[in-house]
Amino acid sequence: MNQAVLDLAEQFLERSNLPAKADIDAVHIAVATVHGMDYLLTWNCKHIANAQIQGKLAEISLDFGYELPILCTPYELLGG
């Protein structure tokens, strides 16, 4: 984890509809984003694999020069 990750996570919390209590989730997403992961697999459909949140997270990521990874469940990745 580095300052870029922490800065992006902070922006996710400030500028998206992630609640403040999802701070660890924001860091998890930021780590995957900053380090250029293609996918972030999770069973957390409340704050991470959530279509209502992903659009804004993608916008914030682009503002910082990153591309948001695909956020999905393992089941979705396997085509389920």
Structural class: mainly alpha
- The string of secondary-structure elements, in order, is HHEHEH
Largest sheet: 2 strands, parallel
* CA-based gyration radius: 12 Å
β-sheet strand percentage:
5-15%
Strand order, main sheet: write it out: 1-2
Number of separate domains:
1
Report low-confidence residues grouped into runs of 5 or more: none
**What would you call the shape?**
globular
Give the strand tally: 2
DSSP helix fraction: 40-55%
- Give the number of helices: 4
Mean pLDDT: 96
Protein name: Similarity with tr|A0YTT1|A0YTT1_9CYAN Hypothetical protein
Organism: Microcystis aeruginosa (strain PCC 7806)
Provide a brief overview of the structure.
This protein has helices spanning 3-15, 23-34, 51-63, 74-77, and strands at 39-41, 70-72. It is mainly alpha-helical and 80 residues long.
What is the fold's blueprint, element by element?
Blueprint: H1 3-15, H2 23-34, E1 39-41, H3 51-63, E2 70-72, H4 74-77
Helix pairs in contact: 1-2, 1-3
Give structural notes.
The chain has 80 residues and is mainly α. The protein has one domain. Helix content is 52%, strand content 8%. It has four helices and two strands, in the order ααβαβα. The chain has helices spanning 3-15, 23-34, 51-63, 74-77; strands at 39-41, 70-72. The chain has a two-stranded parallel sheet. α3 links the parallel β1 (39-41) and β2 (70-72). The longest helix has 13 residues, at 3-15. This is Similarity with tr|A0YTT1|A0YTT1_9CYAN Hypothetical protein.
